[in-house]
Specification:
53% of the residues lie in helices and 0% in strands. It has 130 residues and is mainly α. It has one domain. The longest helix is centred in the last third of the chain and has 28 residues.
Length: 130
């Protein structure tokens, strides 16, 4: 639909010229800017998204930014799993045993680091800072 040639018949009280009106530009953004950085969560069903989500979970767990119930549950689940993984170490050779022990201790090191960070973060708030 085009603008009528004689716009004065519809808007007789206008104070401005039509040519000036055509030059007025208003830029309206389609989405408002977000005041903070949003970390998009990738799809966990594709391989790279799954790797990223596992790394993100391990980083949160290792830095102590999870709830206590998550730490206790992780110790219970990972501890039991690693105990079952270490049981067959006895009949293995030294090289196989070291490999399985290292693989079993990696998740426990993440949990240990997260537990230490969680304990360090839960200091009493009323102590004076130095």
């Amino acid at each position: 639909m085009s603008a009528p040639k004689n716009y004065r018949q519809y808007l007789p009280d206008d104070e401005f010229d039509r040519d000036e009106f055509d030059r007025i530009v208003v830029d309206i953004p389609t989405t408002p800017p977000i005041p903070y950085e949003v970390d998009s969560i990738p799809n966990g069903y594709d391989p790279m998204g799954r790797i990223y989500l596992e790394g993100r979970g391990n980083r949160r767990l290792a830095s102590g930014r999870v709830s206590w119930w998550v730490v206790v549950t992780a110790w219970f689940i990972a501890g039991m799993t690693m105990f079952v993984a270490v049981l067959p170490l006895f009949p293995m050779t030294v090289i196989e045993g070291v490999f399985v022990a290292v693989m079993a201790l990696l998740p426990l090191s993440v949990l240990g680091r997260g537990t230490i960070a969680k304990l360090a973060a839960s200091k009493p708030k009323n102590t004076p800072e130095r």
